[in-house]
Each structure stands twice: as C-alpha cells, then as structure tokens.
Amino acid sequence: MSLAAGYVLGLAAALFAVGAVGVLVRRSAVVMFMCVELMLNSVNLTLVTFSRVNGDVEGQVLAFFVIVVAAAEVTVGLALIVNLFRLRVSTDADQVDVLRA
Amino acid sequence: MSAVAQAVQTPTIPWAAISPELVLFGAGILVLLLDTAGGNRRTSAAVAFVALLGVAGLVVATGEDVAAAVPVVIAAAAILQLALALALSRRPRLLGAVLAVLGFAGCMLAAAWQWWAATDGSLVATETLLSGTVAVDGVALFTRMTVCVAGIVTVLLGFSYLEDRRVHRGEYYPLLLLSATGMTLLASAADLLMVFIAVEILSLALYVMSGFAKRDLASQESAFKYFLLGAFSSAFLLYGIALVYGAAGTTNIAAAGRALAGFEVPAAFGIAAVGLLLVGLAFKVALVPFHMWTPDVYQGAPTPVTGFMAAATKAAAFAAFLRVFADGLAALQWTWVPAVGVLAAATMLAGAILAVVQDDLKRMLAYSSVAHAGYATMGLLALSQEGTAATMFYLLAYAVMSLGAFGVLGVLERRQRKAIAVADLRGLGQRAPLLAGMFALFLLSLAGIPGTAGFMGKLAVVRAAVDADHIALPVVLVLSSVVAAFFYIRVIVAMFMEDEPAELADVPVPASTGSAAGLSAAAAGVVVLGVVPPAVIDLAQRAATFAG
Lengths: 101, 548
Known about the structure:
The complex is a heterodimer of chains A (101) and B (548).
Chain A: H1 5-25, H2 29-54, H3 58-88
Helix pairs in contact in A: 1-2, 2-3
Chain B: H1 2-7, H2 19-36, H3 41-62, H4 69-87, H5 92-119, E1 127-129, E2 134-136, H6 138-164, H7 172-187, H8 192-210, H9 217-248, H10 253-262, H11 267-285, H12 293-300, H13 303-328, H14 333-356, H15 361-381, H16 385-416, H17 428-431, H18 433-447, H19 453-467, H20 472-497, H21 513-531, H22 534-543
Antiparallel strand pairs in B: 1-2
C-alpha cells in the first residue's frame, strides 16, 4: 500500500506556504531564517516525491545538492545574524532600519 | 584491482569546457592560501608552486585530450605566482589584488581560447558538455567577458577605498573571485540544477562581501537583508525547478522546455512552474515588485562591492534569465511574455520615479539600476537573436557606466568619510574637474544621451522590441528615460553650476593609482561603446546563440 503522490505534494506545498508566510510576517531574524529553511525542505520533499513518481534518481540527487547548499547557507546566515546581534543587541528584524529613504 | 577499475567507469570530464571557471576558482583558492599563510607566505607559495607543477605533470602524464600549450601555461602560472609572492611578501593586500586581476585576465583568456579552439573564431558554436549541464555558447562567452571586465575594474576601484575604511582584509579577493566563479558558471548553466548551484555560489560570497565592514551597522544590515531575501528568492526558484522536474521529468533547460511545450502537462502545473521560476529570477535581476531588497542592499554595502553587484551579478542573472526563458521556455511564451512585459514596464517606471525622490546618491543609483534592469528585459522579450544580443550589449554598457558611477562615489566617500548626498557635490566641477567630468559622463550615459554607451544600449533594445512588434514598451522606455534624466541632470547642475560649501573648501579630493586606472578604464569603455559600438554589437549578435 502506498500513499498517493498527490497528498505528499499537497503537504509539501502547504509547508512551502507556511514558510513563505512566516518569512513575511515573523519579526525575529532567526525565526525568519528557520522559515526559509522550511521552504527549502518542502522543496526537498517535492523533489523526492517526483523522483518516486518519475522513477529516476535525478530528483533525489537534486535534494542532496539542496541539503548541502542549505547547510552552507546556515553557516553564512548565522554568522551574519550573530554579527548584527553584536552590533545591535537584538534580532528583531523591525529594528533593522538604518537604511531607508 | 583491475576488476574494480573495470567495474567503476570513470567519467570523462571535458576540462576545457569549464576552464574559465577553473582559472577563477584556482586563483581564488591561491589567494586564500597565500593570505591565510601570514608569515609563512613564501612557504605557501612554494607549496602552491609544487602543486601547480604537479597538475601540469598530471596533464602531461594522463594524456588528457588538451592542447599541448596547457601544461606550459600551468607551469608558467606556477612560476608567476611564486615570483609575485616572493616580491610582494611584505604587502599581502597588493599581492591579493594583483593575483585577482591576473585571475580575471586569465579567465578572459581561457574563455577566448575556448572559443577560438571550438569555433575557428566565428563564435557561434553551440554545444553542451558535462552531461548537458554546462553550455559552451555565445551567451556564456559574452557574459563571462562582462563579468571579468567588471571584476578587474572592481579590484582597481576597491583597493584604496577598502584601505581608507580600514576593512581591507585578505578574504576580500578570494570572495570576489569565488563569486565571479559562480557568475561565470551561471552564465553557462544549461541545467536548472546548475543554475541553482551557481546562484548559491555567487550569492554566498556576495552576502559576506556586502557585510564586509564588520563594525558598520549599515553594511551589516545590507548583508542581512540581502541574505534573507536572497535565500527567500532561491526557495521560489528551487520550487519552480522541482515542479519543472516533476512535469517534464528532467532538469535540463532545453529538454524541459521541449517537454513542457510538447506533451499535455496539466496546464495549472506548467503555469505554476513557470511562474515560480519567473519569481525566483525576477528577484535576482530585481524587477519591480521583486526589487525591494535592491536599494537597501546597494546603499549599505561597501561601494566597490555595490558596483560589482550592479554590474556583474546583473549580467550573470540576465544570462540565466535569457537561457531559461528566451531559449528554454520560448515555446511557452503565451504563459510568460505578457507577465514579463508588465513587470518590465513597471520596473522602468517605478525605478525612474523612485530614483528622482532620493537624496542619497548611492540609493539613487540603486533605483537607477532597477530601471536599467527593466530596459535590459526588453531585449529578452523580443525573443529573437537580435533581442538577446541587445540585452547582452546593454548589460556590458550598463556594467561599465555603473562601475564608473559607483567608483566616483567611492572616491567622494573617501574624501568626506560619509554617505554622499546631492548637496555634497556642489562645486566639485571647480575643485576636481576631471573627476566631476567623468561622473558627468557616467551619469549622461546612464541617462542615455547620444554618443554614450547607454544610448547605444537603449537604441539596441528599442530596435529589437520594435522588430518583435512590442510597441508599448519603447514608449514606456522613453517616458522612464525622461523622468530619470531629471535626476542625473540635477546632479550635474550641482557639480558645475553651484558654489562649493565652505566646510569642504580645504578637504582635498583623494587620488590613488588604482581608482584613477579603474575610472579611466570605465570612462574609456563608455566612450568606446558609445562612439564605435558596431564592433561590439556585431560580437554580441554573433554571440547571441544558445546551445540546444
């Protein structure tokens, strides 16, 4: 017995939407960053599902690349957030407003 | 042992196809090695020397199918870097800058050699290598050249600026070279997987470079915003790639385009895939309404980095945009041409109108770069060889003029040690006529005055759009240019027709060899592309081919 691919794709789409809305409405830099990670991982789920449907491994290979890239992004992103925090003593993205017209 | 060797089939890698990237990447690693070595720089250079000779020996020994000159070139590079490292062992920053310039020059030579070898100089070969992931075609060549020109000028303009701001740390040059590696790779990516990886390579390095002034809040904020929105847009791009893979069963751009156009994919599915790809790429090239990161990021980043982002990143992102949409998805044009047309019109108008109300010059140039992305998109919308050539020529012209404009801003920031507003430029015409004259030249070119590179670029995209029966867009371009000209002229008036404020009377304008050379090169580019463009336009025309 196997789960219909449509359900998994729907779940992935829902997770992607949750992540996208999260980036737009949450204010903490770290939580926004976590939402981006959620979006990337929902794409991984989509890729693996399609890989199963299409019957080849290309999607799984792609998912591995995404995981590696996401890990690299974490290192750079957290370094930037930490440095910003050291200057501002806050990770509230609403206070990041030196630059505006 | 031999059984294992037989069982494991080793892939044949066409090294020549990725030689420009290898040169840039190698230069980046070399600079990083020499920089982190500190006092042991000579030892490190010796290690790199032996390693490079080893590579040359390996090329000879394995008898890879390459030109006989390759091992000689690698050996020459080994000797050159050793000599430079010994000569400049007490000036590590200068060593990094020189090696970076040599790396960019080497990348250009490798690309030129690749083309000469593959096509007997006709520049129209189209082939994809590495299992169809890397395209060796005209678009890749032309964009690589644009990126390398931008890289060389950036190194020249940045040296004194970074010294003066006390942020001239050694990792700057490796990051610059690595981001350029990502850009050249993006220009030649023929597979959506490669597009994603190249985008990430260039972005990760640029995030760090935007935040290079570690104690400056504006710079950190710029890096943080760039990072968050860059990652956000990458997720959209990636979701689009996943849907294309699901619908077409492949991530190869050309094959996926054929599959999506050919057989009955559920329409909603295909449109969702195309829409997500469009959102992802529109973020990268900064089309309205996906431009909102641009002003903040450009304003906060160190000025030479801003110039590099405006010139090189735009060129590379447009190359991918062209390859995915104007080539891969050309058969599906009914799904995306109207949408991109609306985006382009909105971009041209919003960019120009928002630029007019800015007082900070860097922010004004950021909005101007948004408007220019709209102009360049017109060539893409023509969906013709002429249109592709027009976009590529436009991006080269924009690269030289924006690098020049940001370069002048960098010199002025060094003078006043603060962000530059229009009022700070009063009287610059008398104080430093040459600098003010060059700034006026770059601004007139950005405005699109005849005789400059900007005018020729606009002419090319308008001609391509009219030939493709897009009549509304050229009208929007003219309207946008009229609005934008207002701001450029306002700056020029302030420089030449107003008196210098008293507090600036005895502040000297800093001069340095690097910025003088960089600005002269950019000004020469603007004049050459503006006065005798046929040679370059012809090159772009011949280069406007995609590997199938």
